[in-house]
Automatic annotation (TrEMBL):
Keywords: Receptor, Signal. InterPro entries: BUG, Bug_dom1. Residues 1-24 form the signal peptide. Belongs to the UPF0065 (bug) family. This is Extra-cytoplasmic solute receptor. Pfam families: TctC (PF03401).
């Protein structure tokens, strides 16, 4: 009888301690505005994605969801801001997962541990990269470009604007025997357009948001996508393998992440809501128009497992891309 009373009293008491109140708060989540940190400039192609998904989350959650742009440091400034945020579910980050998973191979002294300092909520979508040339160039296929680059040798040049594009460019050269042509780094893909127009740049590896937009307006031509299979939303664009360049499968993925220690109930709810958003017909159409494909995983734990795999993959990619730590 004494044991029963003690247990009953413990249950009653637990309802009044902070842990009990936290559970009640979790049940009412979200009760106020949510901030999504984004590691890219307002108005950029990536920002368009972030604001689209913020709006869709807002509709599902019936609460205001804003985007807080924190560009700089190859995305690290935004991730540090997330790391330092209160783990209450009201500050999260949406963006490319390589801001997290590439950090150990990009920075000499990474300001965060991608697997220990964060809780991964859910994937958002995956995205290939594209080989691009001036629409007025004579290059109709990868083989045309490869032949020309072998003839040009060191006089050839190409543009990159981020680490995935550097990696894909190195894979292309390694698998075709193209010599070390001049790499020109730009802050954004759009910054390369003047050099493309003047003929100073022979080719570029870019993201599909930029590549498809410039292809549709007649500025650039897309020669291939970096995935093992064609992208369902743009099935007319061949893969590198189909163009005679083997061993190329490079894609990035976007993720919704939270500060470490965010309550499990909140992570589970946001995973469920994010999955509902990403699998909606509107999201499929939006992502597909920009060359991406919806991506889902079963749980926050499965998302962490995928991030763990991605971190190992970046170790290999960093070697292929000859990336020097900063």
């Amino acid at each position: 009888m004494k044991k029963f009373l003690a247990g009953a009293l413990a249950l009653v008491f637990s309802a009044y301690v902070p842990g009990g109140m936290a559970t009640a708060a979790d049940d009412n989540y979200p009760s106020r505005q949510i901030t999504l940190i984004a590691g890219f400039p307002a108005g950029s192609g990536a920002d368009v994605y972030a604001r689209f998904f913020a709006k869709k989350l807002e509709e599902q959650l019936k609460q205001t969801v804003i985007v807080d742009n924190k560009p700089g440091g190859l995305g690290s400034l935004s991730v540090v801001a997330l790391k330092n945020a209160k783990p209450d579910g009201y500050t999260m980050l949406i963006g490319s997962a390589d801001q997290f998973t590439a950090a150990p191979y990009v920075f000499n002294a990474p300001p965060y541990d991608p697997l220990k300092d964060f809780d991964y909520v859910a994937p958002v979508f995956s995205q290939a990269f594209m080989m691009l040339v001036n629409a007025k160039s004579p290059y109709q296929k990868i083989s045309d470009l490869t032949k020309a680059m072998k003839e040009k040798g060191a006089k050839g040049s190409y543009a990159t604007s981020n680490f995935p594009s550097v990696i894909l460019a190195e894979m292309y050269k390694a698998n075709t025997g193209v010599p070390d042509t001049l790499q020109v780094r730009y802050k954004t893909s759009a910054d390369s357009l003047n050099d493309f127009a003047s003929g100073a740049i022979d080719y570029m590896v870019g993201d599909p948001v930029f590549g498809l937009a410039r292809s549709r307006d007649g500025t650039l031509r897309v020669l291939a996508v970096s995935t093992a299979k064609r992208i369902s939303s743009v099935p007319d664009i061949p893969t590198f393998a189909e163009e005679g360049v083997p061993n190329v499968d490079v894609r990035i993925w976007w993720v919704l992440a939270a500060p470490k220690g965010t309550p499990k109930a909140i992570l589970d709810k946001m995973h469920k809501v994010m999955t509902q958003v990403t699998t909606s017909e509107e999201a499929r159409k939006f992502v597909g128009t920009n060359g991406g494909e919806p991506m889902t995983l079963d749980s926050p734990k499965a998302t962490l497992d995928y991030a763990t795999m991605d971190t190992k993959r970046w170790e290999e990619w960093a070697k292929i891309g000859k990336i020097e730590k900063q």
